[in-house]
Write a structure and sequence with these properties.
Blueprint (H helix, E strand, L loop, with lengths): L12 H4 L7 E9 L2 H10 L14 E7 L1 H7 L3 H4 L4 H5 L4 H7 L21 E7 L4 H8 L2 H6 E8 L19 E3 L16 E3 L19 E3 L16 E3 L5 E10 L1 H11 L4 H12 L45 H5 L12 H8 L7 H7 L7 E2 L2 E3 L5 H4 L11 E8 L3 H12 L30 E5 L2 E6 L6 E11 L2 H7 L5
Parallel strand pairs: 5-6
Antiparallel strand pairs: 1-3, 1-4, 2-3, 7-8, 9-12, 9-15, 10-12, 11-12, 13-14
Helix pairs in contact: 2-16, 9-10
The chain binds protoporphyrin IX containing FE.
Length: 496
């Protein structure tokens, strides 16, 4: 299978760029009000493509659809049903909620948006320079839009200058996408590499298994003529190509509770509290990893990759510097992903999911199949750790992260991370603890308490912090499809 070169004119720009130079962003959630008007609007929508331009664009519009949105647009059942099962069933079916940790305070019943009966149909992501956002958003959501759609929620973002609301530099580690598709995935089967196949994030191209992820293909006919050809199915047109699944979760962050807890656990010393918080994250607030940076980039990692990301956990096999339970080591275990890391042949087998260790460990060892591209933005005003020690005001503003992840396979990528790594109470031989930042502390079968955090020590029993409360609460969420520009026109009934 010779992969085609990517056509950036057909890819939504946020996949490639994230639009960091556009500091203002707003997410608009809407439902179809009048089908024909909605189809017409989507066919004409000035969606910004991923072509590189100098100077970069002054604003950008991106559009994504939910499965109920496809229904509302009247997309044919044969096309709709060929999207992935996770996308089709949405984020909130009961089993999925349990697996994602959407229980207790995170229960979709108390979300502000999303979920079966309140699912949005369409998501507009509007990016602009500071001060220009209202005008740009008004341009896109004027009378043609309001004839076609009813806005249900407008989600604002804030610009905390690359820092998430707890006060840590964010957006540092991203997979380095092999846009040129120049490196065979098998060459990175054994050691951690930050290089990741294009098909892990963009449908219609080979993924880390050197296969195209399932997506809707349709017979070539007059209606589908505008679509690209399917790479792996001669004669078929590809609805998925240049599209991606977009996971959106609104994660409320209780910044005061976070800093008050670590301050108390650190004996009332703010500097020690910052050190403990850094161990929860796995990086300092400035973004430096807790393990030494490699002198050379990690193999397969282009030099341009952020300097703060040149590290593996090779030199810290027991998690003394960066505990196994820290957020970054759970969400990307890199190479030392569990304490008794296999070597040699065992490692080779583990990479392909076939060692004699437990199935879960085998899966955990295959990190390259579980990466996501993060594109979220924070919301709410900044709050310094020292100020966060004061009690909340009567009019405490909401703070949090509009977490957005792009991936080709929601189950194998986002859901695996969330379930097997972050929400898992038995991750890496740890017991009774979940991710220190985003974990719920809800009892689960066989694990009545999960509010601990373990810090291994050299030559001494591990230190344990107990009683972590829940710092992050899910406020809304949905699975979207972020189509290629031609697929968007096709789904909206266009033929050219
Ligand atoms: C409010 C919730 C969250 C906060 C405050 C948060 C914060 C952070 C911070 C500070 C970093 C380190 C900086 C960086 O590498 O970008 C990070 C990394 C990361 N987070 Fe989160 N995060 C949150 C939710 C999530 C969720 C829900 C997931 C996935 C399901 C996730 C996955 C990741 C990944 C994959 C990394 C990069 C790890 C690496 O490659 O080293 N995060 N996060």
């Amino acid at each position: 299978m010779t992969p085609p070169a990517i056509d950036y004119r057909d890819l939504q720009g946020v996949v490639r760029f994230g639009y960091k130079h556009l500091h203002a962003a707003r997410y608009v959630l809407a439902r179809v009000r009048e089908r024909e008007a909605a189809r017409a609007w989507l066919r004409e929508a000035p969606v910004t493509a991923a072509e590189y331009s100098l100077p970069p664009p002054d604003d950008a519009l991106q559009v994504a659809l939910t499965a109920p949105g496809l229904d509302a647009l009247g997309v044919a059942a044969a096309v709709r049903d060929a999207f992935s099962p996770e996308f089709l069933s949405g984020m909130t079916d009961a089993n999925r909620s349990r697996r994602l940790g959407d229980v207790g305070a995170n229960d979709p019943a108390s979300w502000q948006w999303g979920g079966a009966s309140r699912a949005p149909h369409v998501l507009l992501m509007v990016f602009a320079h500071r001060g220009a956002l209202d005008a740009v958003a008004a341009r896109h959501t004027g009378s043609a839009f309001s004839q076609a759609f009813t806005i249900t929620h407008t989600l604002e973002t804030s610009d905390l200058d690359g820092v998430e609301p707890f006060g840590f530099a964010d957006g540092i580690s991203q997979p380095w996408i092999d846009w040129a598709q120049g490196t065979a995935p098998a060459s990175r089967a054994l050691d951690y590499s930050n290089l990741s196949a294009l098909g892990e994030y963009v449908l219609g191209y080979p993924n880390e298994y050197a296969k195209c992820t399932d997506r809707p293909l349709v017979p070539a006919d007059a209606a589908s003529a505008l679509l690209p050809d399917a790479l792996d199915a001669p004669g078929q047109k590809d609805v998925g190509r240049n599209g991606s699944y977009l996971v959106f979760r609104q994660l409320g962050q209780d910044v005061r509770r976070f800093w008050q807890f670590v301050h108390g656990a650190a004996g009332g010393d703010l500097a020690a509290a910052e050190r403990l918080a850094a161990v929860f994250v796995g990086r300092t607030r400035a973004g430096d990893p807790l393990v030494p940076l490699s002198a050379r980039p990690v193999p397969g990692t282009p030099d341009e990759q952020a300097a703060q990301n040149h590290f593996t956990f090779d030199g810290d096999p027991r998690g003394v510097a960066c505990p196994f339970g820290s957020h970054i080591r759970r969400s990307n275990p890199r190479n030392t992903d569990y304490p008794e890391r296999p070597a040699g042949l065992t490692k080779l087998l583990a990479a392909f999911g076939a060692s004699s260790k437990g199935f879960r460990d085998d899966l955990i060892s295959a990190v390259r199949f579980h990466r996501i591209l993060r594109r979220g933005r924070e919301y709410g005003p900044p709050l310094d750790p020292a100020d966060a020690l004061a009690p909340a005001s009567a009019t405490e503003p909401e703070r949090g992260l509009h977490f957005i992840a792009l991936n080709a396979n929601i189950g194998r990528q986002f859901e695996f991370l969330q379930n097997a790594w972050l929400a898992n109470t038995t991750f890496a031989d740890l017991r009774g603890e979940t991710d220190p930042l985003i974990g719920t502390r809800e009892p689960t079968p066989g694990c009545p308490a999960s509010g601990a955090f373990t810090r291994p020590r050299h030559g001494a029993p591990a230190d344990r912090v107990n009683g972590l409360p829940q710092f992050v609460t899910v406020k809304g969420g949905e699975y979207f499809f972020l189509p290629g520009l031609r697929a968007l026109r096709y789904l909206a009934g266009g033929t050219s």
